[in-house]
Design a protein that fits this description.
This protein is mainly α. Helix content is 84%, strand content 0%. It contains 5 helices and no strands.
Length: 91
């Protein structure tokens, strides 16, 4: 079973990403207070879920290390968007 998972990791990661993205998108559509400035938070959640599943399935830490740069970019974008949203609310 473990060999099957490791050999098909690209399919599993793609499937998990699609499902998590769909669920978060559905929740965002149903929540009227959700704005486009909150999209980077969805990206953080997707990245954490994918990296965690990959690490649990393979025990390989390379994807975690490789994803540190995109995570840093997403966190920066999130902080920037939240600041912009705050500025827009006060004007």
């Amino acid at each position: 079973m473990k060999d099957f998972i490791i050999n098909n990791m690209d399919i599993i990661i793609s499937f998990v990403t699609i499902i998590v993205t769909w669920i978060l998108g559905y929740l965002a559509k149903k929540n009227p207070s959700f704005s486009n400035n909150m999209i980077p938070i969805q990206n953080i959640i997707i990245m954490i879920v994918v990296v965690t599943i990959y690490w649990i399935a393979t025990g390989d830490f390379n994807l975690v290390i490789a994803s540190s740069s995109p995570v840093a970019t997403i966190i920066y974008d999130t902080i920037h968007c939240l600041k912009c949203e705050t500025c827009l609310d006060t004007n």
